[in-house]
Each structure stands twice: as C-alpha cells, then as structure tokens.
Amino acid sequence: MVKYDAQVAVIGLGANGGQALYQLAKRGISAIGLEQYWAPNERSGHAGEHRVLHPLPFSPEGSPDHDILKDIMPAWKQFQKETNSNIVLEHGVLLFGHEGDEEFEVIAQNARNRDGHDRNVLSADTLRKEYPLFRTPDDGLGVFDEQGGAVRSEMAVYSAVHGAQKLGAEVHTDTKVHGWAIEQDRVRVFTRDREFVVEKLVVSPGAYVAELLPHLPIRARRLVMGWFTPKPDYVDAYSDPKQLPAFHGSIPHRRGEMIYGAGSLDKPYVKIGADFNWGLADEINQTDFHVVPEDLDGIRMMARERFVGLDDAPLRSIKLMDGWTVDFEALVGNYGPSGRVVLATGFSGYGFTVAPVMGQIVADLVEKEETSYNIEHLNPNRFTEPNNSLAEWWGVTGGWNRSWSKL
What we know:
Elements: E1 6-11, H1 15-26, E2 31-34, E3 51-53, H2 65-70, H3 72-83, E4 88-89, E5 93-98, H4 102-115, E6 121-122, H5 124-130, E7 140-145, E8 149-151, H6 153-166, E9 170-172, E10 177-183, E11 186-191, E12 195-203, H7 209-212, E13 218-230, H8 235-238, E14 246-250, E15 258-263, E16 270-275, E17 280-281, H9 297-306, E18 310-325, E19 331-334, E20 341-345, H10 351-368, H11 390-394
Parallel strand pairs: 1-2, 1-12, 2-9, 5-14, 12-20
Antiparallel strand pairs: 3-8, 4-8, 5-7, 6-7, 10-11, 11-12, 13-16, 13-17, 13-18, 14-15, 15-16, 19-20
Helix pairs in contact: 1-6, 1-10, 3-10
C-alpha cells in the first residue's frame, strides 16, 4: 500500500499557486506547497506592492471568461474576510484607450451592457474634466470600471499561503523542484532535499514553468515597474484615489503599447508599469534582476507624457519575470493522460485578477476532475495539434509581437 505524504502537492506559491493551496486546504484536502524561493518573494510576477483588478471583460459578450470575471471581486472579498486580511482596494479602475481601437470598443460595450447605460463610458473631454492628472489625447476614450480596484499583491500571497497553513497545509519554501515521475498509483516529486509522494500534482510556478516544462508555449517575460514622485503642487491630488484610481490602458502608435499602475500605498508616489518589447528570456535563471537605466526609459517617458505634475525621475524600481503564452490565454486544466497533473500557469499578465477564482477551479479539478466554469479556452493541450509546432508559434521574429494574439 502506498504511503502518501499528502493528497496533492502544489508547485509554486505565487498568485495562483497560493490560492490553489488555500482552496485545497479549505476543502479539507491534504496538500503540500513547494516554493523554490519564499512566499511572497521579489523575483516572481506578484511583487511590486499591488496589482490592478479589472472585472470588466476585454472580450465580447458571451466569451467564456465573462463568468470567471464576474465572480472575481466577490471571491477576493470572501478571501479577504476568511483570512482577516486588508488587501482589496475598492477605488475602481480607469481603463483608457483611443478612437479606432476595436478592442477598446468591446470594453466600452461591456460597460454599457453591465451598467445599463453610458455613465462610465468617457469621452476625451470628460476624461480631462474628471481625471485631470492623466494627459488625454484628442482621440482618447475611457471607461471607469466602478467594480474594480487593486489588490495588495505580496500581502495577498502571504495571506493565501499562511491561511492554507492554518487550515492544515504543509509549506516548504526555499525548496526547488527538479522534476516529478508519474506512476500508476502516485506522483513522486523530487526536490533538492527529498522526495514527496502524492496522489496528484498542481503545477503553478508562473514564469518558472519554462524550467520544468520547457516544451510548453510559455516564456518568461521581463516586467519593469517604477515609482514616481508628484511635484509639490500635486501631492494632495496624487494622494486622492478619486483623482488617481488604479489605471490600465493602451497607448496608440507609441513605443509602449500598454500602461498600468496605481497610487502607491506609500502616498503620494505613483507606481507605473508598462509593456514594451523588452524581449523574452528563455533561460530564466540567467536573467539579471538588477534594474539598469535603460530598463526605465519607456516608463519615464510615460511619466512625462501621460501624467500631469509627475517628476520623471524614479524613486525606486523593480524588475520581475512573468509567464506569457502566445495567445495571451493561460494554461489551466488536466495535463497529460494520467489524470494526475493539473496545470495553472501562463496567465500572461492577468493572473492576479483571476487568482481566487482560479484557486477554486484548480481545487475543483483536483477534487472532482471537473469544474462548473467553462475553461475550454484555457485547455493546456490546445497547442499540441500536429500543425501547431513550437517553431510555428514562436517563429523567428526576434522578439515579442502582439500580432500573435490574432493567430
């Protein structure tokens, strides 16, 4: 008879791995959490003070992610209540785009459908009037997602992992997983110090999945964030979340395609992150996490050109790694024929938004091998068709190309 160390092991205790461990422990399922660094840590995609929560979908009405997104704020609030943590910031999210952007028009239509009218769909003139700290171009458009906000990211990971421990989960940090073996009646998980024997395995290591499953169409992507100081006359305005809600938007025809952030918890500073073609890092452990001035050039440009009264000299900065797929959709579901491995990885920048719901989905898959949510679009096996080779997906473009989202 097999002697199991637990029913399930979870590899990676970041945004989604931590939530999976918590939800498993909440259901009374014996679980072991394995994290190669510590939880939270400053190298994973969850670092950097907070993350934007935007429940308003970016996809057309009827898309499968709508059911997931409508549940995220209730799930975050329930988690906050259960763990007695103070992590959810409910000040709304300002989403901004520009005329002619078909994707942004989808967001605006979703706001109309949900809110029943146009009150949260904002013209350029309205944006300038209601949110004067943001520089709005003449073709600018906005949507205020009143149900959104932000979450204190490191504290959310801490609350999930320690909440799971209180419910009986076993946690091993500073424990690197080197691999696993799937047998008929068990999964053997190998770390630098010992072997764990479990019935099932959850793999949720963020960008570091590139080490464990290098054949997956996921690569580590460098993310840089900077904290900026308001000029003296603007300190009070930048300290007011009504004037500076969390924000997320696209920049037309510019070097940076996307910008996001929020007011710092250490007021009155502003955290700005942006998506630039910083490249993909195939060898994640060879990445230098030291921020050099060139890493901040694009974000400093955003501080100058997209905000009023903000000094462009960064007060502090951070470089992280995040795991992205070529179609911007995560890999969530049963992986391989054994039925013993569940993937939850490759969230491509939206992992924190959906984390508590994803924790429930993973727990469903472990406990019942199914979930009530439609996650077919997240099927981890969708890239394994004969005509979809890695060469075709990743090509030889030499860098990140957003047009791949259209494939």
